[in-house]
Amino acid sequence: MTQRPVYNDAMRALQRRFGTEALADALARHNRREAFTADDTAFVERLTCFFLATTDADGFPDCSYKGGAPGHLKVLSPGSLSFPCLDGNGMFRSMGNIQANPSVGLLFIDFEAPRRLRVNGRARLVFDDPRQAEVPGAMAMIHVDELAIFTNCPRYIHSGGQLSDYLDQGDGQAKVPDWKRREEFNPLLPDHDPAKGGTS
Hints:
By secondary structure, this protein is an alpha+beta fold. Strands 1, 2, 3, 4, 5, 6, 7 and 8 form an 8-stranded antiparallel beta sheet that branches.
């Protein structure tokens, strides 16, 4: 997973169309990594939910909300994490997909902070993991390795049913995210971006 190119041809074509290729390269250099930092670990392990994307053997996607008590997510090492397979509806869509195709995407969100982290990797089911005894109701543990970790801008995350202040509602009042003002990114913004030239 970590050896794959950051961007595929279709992504590159859209970056060229909208003038963001240089910006995308800079974001990949600054915001992509293959190991959890101590801060990443603390963030992930305190969460009570995340979103899990899987695909079947034919590449057909499925996305699922996964919830649990704090600590159900565990960073096993800088390059590996695990979470439990808990009792659900008995369809085993996510877990069955992992058995057929180990490529997964995980999205971690704190709606209050706000903050988010994307993690792609290769997953496997472990049926004799000692950690099952630590997580009530765990039927198996899922280990995710070969990570590609991305820090994401949290600007559109909303809290309490309110739309994000960063959402463009056509009134010219949308806030500019701080990362767009940083010197390493601001000059790379396309000319049509409202934040262009607004370094602090």
